Amino acid sequence: MVNGCAVANDNPISRTSVQTDALRRKLQADGLLVLDVKVIPRAPCAEVAEWMANGALKVKVTAAPEKGKANEEVCALLAEYWGVPKRNVQVVLGKTSQSKRLKVLL
Fold first, then answer.
1. pLDDT in tens, 26-76
2. Is 2 part of any domain?
3. How many other C-beta atoms lie within 10 A of the C-beta of residue 51?
4. Half-sphere exposure of residue 77: CA atoms within 13 angstroms, side-chain side
């Protein structure tokens, strides 16, 4: 923890979780991953928080949902999480909503 925020190695959603591993394999095999994300803007720290019961990934960001700032932070955070360049993560649905669909390219 750094300033109360999880860092990559002690993230509450383990990089070895079953769901995360399955999606990582899918990304490697298909070169493409489409995922539903629930964004929590203005959080105290940015983190990939948890898998929700509906299958969406909860992501907390510090940016306000203004002028696309939160979307940019979500894309940057998930690019780091999945190990791809920032340009390979795009919001395809829900640009002005907390519920989004993102495309991740390998």
1. 888 898 999 999 999 999 999 999 899 998 999 999 999 999 999 999 999
2. no
3. 16
4. 28
More confident residue, 75 or 4: 75
CATH number of the domain within which 88 lies: 3.30.1200.10
Query: pLDDT at position 102, please?
Result: 97
C-alpha–C-alpha distance, residues 103 and 78, integer Å: 10
Return d(Cα 45, Cα 61) in angstroms, integer: 6
Q: What is the pLDDT of residues 73-87, one digit of tens each?
A: 999 999 999 999 999
Q: Kindly report the backbone phi and psi dihedral angles of residue 44, in degrees, each rounded to the nearest multiple of 5, phi listed first.
A: -60, -30
Considering only CA atoms, which of 89, 104, 102 is closest in space to residue 32?
104
Cα(54)–Cα(62) distance, integer angstroms = 24
Tell me, yes or no, whether 1 lies in a domain: no
75 contacts 104 by C-beta, under 8 angstroms: no
Domain of residue 55: give its range: 8-105
Could you give the number of structural domains in the chain? Answer: 1
